[in-house]
Amino acid sequence: MSFRDTDAIDIVVDSPERENGVDLLIVESPGDSSDETERYQLLIEKLQTYVNYVTSQDFSQSFPETQPSNVVIRVYYATPPNAQMADIMDIELDHINRISVVYQDVNEIPE
Q1: Which of 2, 11, 12, 101 counts the most CB atoms within 10 A of its CB?
Q2: How far is CA 15 from CA 30, 66, 105, in A?
Q3: Segment 52-71, tens digit of pLDDT
Q4: pLDDT at 101 exceeding the cut of 90
Q5: Taking a C-beta distance cutoff of 8 angstroms, is the pair 27, 76 a contact?
Q6: With DSSP H G I counted as helix, E B as strand and the rest as coil, what are the percentages for the chain, rounded to 5?
Q7: pLDDT at residue 110 in the model
Q8: How many CB atoms lie within 10 A of CB 11?
């Protein structure tokens, strides 16, 4: 699990907060990058992988009752997000569907 592993989905869990909801977790490793521009780029690439997954046939088959708008991407950070990163609060898929992006400290990952 790392920002650097941009082609991988870190963790997928059913949301305990929303019926038919799915949380996709991105977990930043402490050593991912200290360069804020690179860190932002890695996050963008990782988010694109997650969007591709949510819009894939794989996702539809695994979660047939879940609409993309009922997906939340939770970014667990080792270092708080910079301003550019924090500006990404949702991702618009089309006129109807958006995926929320939430930032949380890596120490808050549920057991």
Answers
A1: 101
A2: 26, 11, 18
A3: 999 999 999 999 999 988 99
A4: yes
A5: yes
A6: 30, 25, 45
A7: 77
A8: 14
**8-state DSSP, 69:** G
Under a CB-based contact definition with an 8 Å cutoff, are residues 81 and 89 in contact?
no
What pLDDT digit, counting tens, does each position of 74-88 carry?
999 989 999 999 999
Q: What is the mean pLDDT of the chain?
A: 91
47 burial (CB, 10 Å; 0-12 / 13-18 / 19+) is buried
> Whole-angstrom Cα distance, residue 98 to residue 111?
27
Q: How many Å apart are CA 48 and CA 24, to the nearest integer?
A: 12
Give Cα separations from 49 to 33, 53, 54, 107, 111 (angstroms): 19, 6, 9, 24, 24
Q: Is the model's pLDDT at 2 over the cut of 80?
A: no
Q: Where are the chain's structural domains?
A: 11-108
Residue that the structure tokens 């694109």 belong to? 48
User: d(Cα 48, Cα 51) in Å, to the nearest integer?
Assistant: 5
Q: Record the tokens describing residue 54, joined without a space.
A: 């949510």
